[in-house]
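agent: user wants the structure for PEP-utilising enzyme mobile domain-containing protein from Marinihelvus fidelis. delegating to structure tool.
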Amino acid sequence: MVPYQRQPVLRCLFDSRNGARTLSHWGKAQLLKRLKGKINTATVLESHDLDQATFQNGFGDWWLQSPEWLKQHPLAVRSDHDDEGAQAAQNAGRFLSVLSVPPCPDSVREAAANVFASYDRPRLEQRLFVQPMASDVRWSGVITSRSRSSGAPYFVVHESPGSDTGQVTRGSAGESQVTYIARQATGRRPLTTRHASLVRMIEEMEDFLGHDRLELEFVTRRKGLPTLLQARKLDCPSFEADEPFVTGLHALAREARAWWTNREDDAPGPVFSVMADWNPAEIIGRNPKPLATSLYRKLITDFEWAQSRADLGYHMPARHDLLRTLGNTPYIDVDLSFQSLTPAGIRAETRHKLTRSWIEQLKQQPSLHDAVELQIAETCFTVGTPARKSTFRQAGLNAEETEAFCRELKLLTQRIMNPEGTFWHDLEALSRRLGAVTEAPIKSGDAVIPALVKECKQVARLFGRLARSAFIGVAQLDALVACGAVRENNRPMFFRAGHTTTGPQSHRETATPGEEQLHRTNGHSLDHLRPGTYDIERHCYRDRKERVFSAPAPTPKAEDALACVNTPAIQQALDDAGMGIAAADMVAFIVKSIAAREDGKFLYSYYLSQLIEAIAGAGEHAGVSREQLSMLELSQLMPLTDAPVGTLHALGQVADQRRKAFDQSGAYVLPDLLVSPDEVFAHTQVQPEGHYFGQGVISGETLVINDARPGRLRGRIVVLEAADPGYEFLFGSEIAALVTCYGGVNSHMAVRCQESGTPGVLGIGSDRFRRLLTAQQVTIDFDSRRLEICSRQAGSSAVRSQNLST
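agent: tool returned. relaying tokens verbatim.
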């Protein structure tokens, strides 16, 4: 890959000493006029100013004296408020611009009136400007010269199809995407010629203005240079470590290349995802600390995940290291995951063809990476499987291989689901385990941590089998809905019929004045839960004033679901597919498997919490803080209690050093779906639509939370990055809705939203999530799958909706 060469430019206006000062004092139109004809890498459109005084008292004369181009082409009437000048990036998109205005005085007058009406505290000297509409526009958006959130050296392009840059600046994006291109890194390259032209434009603007923190609005056409619509200073944190950052980026690229080179010759091209299979971005976070990552590896992704599937009749891969990390980012090896989701009884060649086909499907539809088990891989036999035999043929299977695959898939599914199947034995084991859960205090000592690790792994294997059974249950339900045997509006009943340990009996009691509110019912205590299940720095509810309880898990009532479905229609669909199971047994399996997974998650989180608190207790005894412990790995902590003082001091030093490296790695931006090592330097992410659970339209105030003391929850639309079982308190708090950055269609929160009837939009993606963090009010239309920010202008009673849907 060839690095960019900075274009030789002439600083026509000012040098670096006064560039920032001048940039901050120019309005939008004023700056564009000074740039026109003086930059080589972008087109600057003609523009014509109009102030409020002239608009009110002399619009007719202004129109007559306007240049001829203004009367010949469709126009854009753009705001030019003092508060959105070159140094007011935070106000980008705050004020109205009107596009595609006919070139006649009445239309321009009406558009100008609307723009001025959007200003708060309008004054006679306030301005707007008129430009010709750019023709043949393909993309519009914003490019920044650094990461807005961290200041790290990335060119960041937020763009969407069409000519309205407001789709990006106001957060009203329809189909939008974000591209990160590392600066100053030898070997980086843009993904398209469009991105190359945008980078050349912003590099020239940096040289021209003497300022390397810029934000440019643009449109691009089918041919020719990009058109610059606005330039302003980028408001971002200071970042003083560009050279170490670039050095570290190259180290990450070398590590990533090893993932691609150390593969079997006939293996499909690898793909790595932060949300496939065991969903690490949702469970341990997009930027987890070393202890959390090592716990997840040791307890689940090193071996137990694979063994739990082999116990059910799935293939046991030769390798078991499901989780990889690049920098701090946790990735699932999707090829390994797909292998483990095929029946053990099929031939290796058949398995290879299937996994290669599924990986290619994922590359073509990257937004499905958080739903691969339900929407890409065929992991169980359902009433819809016979109709999909043609897709198996398209994957390269011949007729014999297709029949063998379907036969083995059916046998595997029947062994799990049938009344004497493995699921029902696991359900009995779960019941025994839940009955043995106690609130006995944690003992300290050198042997406690290894013993708890062993216990956690045993429970993790049981939980893994229950989770896979629940995926099969949901797949069966979806197939019955798809063929019409179950009505779509009856689907939520299957989730609500199987009340779980952390189920909808939870409620909030009103606290006495001045006291923390309590969450409680009359059964199992959920005191062991913590927001951030694997994070030792987050205290569990046992150590807080807040307390969460749940009622004992009642027997799931499959008859509740049976009462609202057409049993003969289900039986007919099952018989037509040769499923060999009665409708009542199928409904019972669906209901109880979904409930059992959540109860298994409760059980696993209980033992995990015991382990984390044992580690914290040993650390306290040894003089190592929770913060320091979070920077260490589990293998370093096993003999912590009886270690000599010198070893403990050394561990503290190691933790402090790792904190520096961890913080630096947190600035790297890697894709959610990694399909090439080159994406370390440059990648594009299409923003996902999100998964909608609910009906009708809900509007309300937003509340961003990341802990268990968020303030008033009732009636609020809660916004958080990812929600693990530690956020169970939300479902007893009468929230209006839940919105998350990460969350799969069959994730814990997806199940809990459907089970409790709480509306939710899960997995909306990082770009839309970032814009929600500063929103005050949101409207969610579940029927049309739209998410909108509603902003109230200062001094105005008007509320403007900004569409965030895809």
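agent: one observation worth passing along. Residues 497 and 557 are 5 Å apart (CA to CA).
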